[in-house]
Amino acid sequence: MRPHTTTLAKERIGMGADDKLEGKADELKGKVKQGVGDATDDPQLETEGKVDETKGDLKQAAEKVKDAFKN
């Protein structure tokens, strides 16, 4: 049996919000790693932080593009 259309729409909206939060979490995690790497003079940790932050930024940008096409 197929779920009602409004249920599907709600699922899509909820997943988008989760993806946005995940992107923001990656961005923040990256900033923390960069700060810790800088404080401990660990260039590898700083680099990991930059990668995480970029990953989070890209996820958020992708969600913005998805949102633009939904409207």
Structure overview:
The chain has 71 residues and is mostly helical. The protein has one domain. It is built from two helices and no strands. It has helices at residues 5-39, 43-70. The longest helix is centred in the N-terminal third of the chain and has 35 residues, at 5-39. The chain is elongated. Residues 19-70 form the CsbD-like domain. Residues 9-30, 47-58 have a biased composition (Basic and acidic residues). InterPro entries: CsbD, YjbJ_sf. Residues 1-58 are annotated as: Disordered. It comes from Saccharothrix espanaensis (strain ATCC 51144 / DSM 44229 / JCM 9112 / NBRC 15066 / NRRL 15764).
Largest beta-sheet details: none
Spell the H/E element sequence: HH
The percent of residues in helical segments reads over 70%
Tell me the domain tally: 1
Distance between the termini: 28 Å
- Indicate the structural class: mainly alpha
The averaged pLDDT comes out at 83
Q: Could you say which overall geometry the principal axes of the C-alpha atoms support?
A: elongated
- Range of strand content: under 5%
Low-confidence stretches: 5-11
> Measured on Cα atoms, how large is the radius of gyration?
17 Å
**How many helices in DSSP terms?**
2
Total number of strands: 0
Protein name: CsbD-like domain-containing protein
Family: Belongs to the UPF0337 (CsbD) family.
InterPro entries: CsbD, YjbJ_sf
Domain CsbD-like: 19-70
Topology:
Elements: H1 5-39, H2 43-70
Short description:
By secondary structure, the protein is an all-alpha fold. The chain contains two helices and no strands.
